[in-house]
Automatic annotation (TrEMBL):
Keyword Coiled coil part of the UniProt annotation: yes
Presence of keyword Coiled coil: yes
Protein name: Cilia- and flagella-associated protein 58 central coiled coil domain-containing protein
Gene, per the UniProt record: Dyak\GE29196
GO cellular component: cytoskeleton
Keywords: Coiled coil
Species the sequence originates in: Drosophila yakuba (Fruit fly)
């Protein structure tokens, strides 16, 4: 019975040894697996550390990017406000340009009107200058004619003195002239004229001179009347020219026209 127990125990021990060997193999496999797991864990930990480092770096970059984005957003907002102000200013400038263009058109129209007025004024001024030149020439001619008329009137006055002197002689011979004139109307009177020419040449010459003076006196009276009429017309023309000259542009107006031009 004890031998059977020993054999049984030996068998159990052999079986247990097999189990122990099998367990040792499993333990060895498990140890190897654990080592592999530890190595893998180490790698994973290194990877996690690297990932954490990358995450920290990414976080720092994200924070920097967020800050940059925030700054850019502020810049964009500022640029947006500036752009809006620029748009408002552009619209204002556009309105001002439209107004300026309208003002320029109005100014150009006014300038054209002023230029036309200036051209018309210049033309009228040149016409007035030409009129003044012609009027001055006419005045000069009138002055010359007036001087001639004055000399003629003076000569007429001298002639009147001569006529008065001869008139006195004429009065002295008036009675005799009447008688001689009556005789001259008859055929016998003609002979008396001829007889008088032969007997008293001085009286005959005086009669002829008186007749000539009478003709000259009549002619001179007519000429004096014409001269007086011409003088009156010349004085009227002179007064008219003076009035016209008073309405002509003065030197000051001429200077203003030149300055405006």
């Amino acid at each position: 019975k004890s031998g059977h127990q020993i054999q049984q125990l030996t068998t159990e021990i052999s079986a247990n040894e097999v189990k122990i060997n099998s367990l040792n193999l499993k333990i060895e496999h498990l140890n190897n697996y654990i080592k592999e797991l530890q190595s893998d864990l180490k790698n994973k930990e290194n990877l996690v550390a690297a990932l954490r480092k990358d995450m920290r770096e990414m976080k720092a970059k994200n924070e920097m990017l967020a800050k940059t984005i925030s700054n850019d957003e502020l810049k964009f907002m500022k640029m947006g406000h500036e752009l809006e102000e620029m748009r408002k200013e552009r619209n204002l400038v556009g309105l001002q340009m439209v107004r300026r263009n309208d003002e320029i058109v109005v100014i150009k129209e006014k300038l054209q009107i002023a230029q036309n007025a200036l051209d018309n004024g210049t033309t009228q001024y040149n016409q007035r200058v030409e009129d003044i030149r012609l009027l001055k020439k006419e005045i000069s001619n009138l002055h010359t004619e007036s001087e001639c008329l004055k000399h003629a009137i003076k000569s007429t006055a001298d002639m009147r003195k001569e006529i008065v002197r001869l008139q006195r002689a004429l009065n002295q011979e008036h009675i005799r002239i009447r008688a001689l004139t009556e005789d001259a109307r008859t055929p016998t009177g003609v002979h008396r004229w001829r007889i008088l020419k032969g007997e008293d040449p001085k009286k005959f010459e005086l009669l002829e001179k008186l007749q000539l003076l009478q003709k000259r006196s009549l002619k001179q009276s007519i000429e004096n009347s014409n001269i007086k009429n011409k003088l009156c017309e010349a004085q009227k023309t002179n007064e008219t020219l003076k009035r016209m000259l008073s309405h002509m542009p003065t030197v000051e107006i001429k200077h203003k026209l030149v300055v405006q031009q």
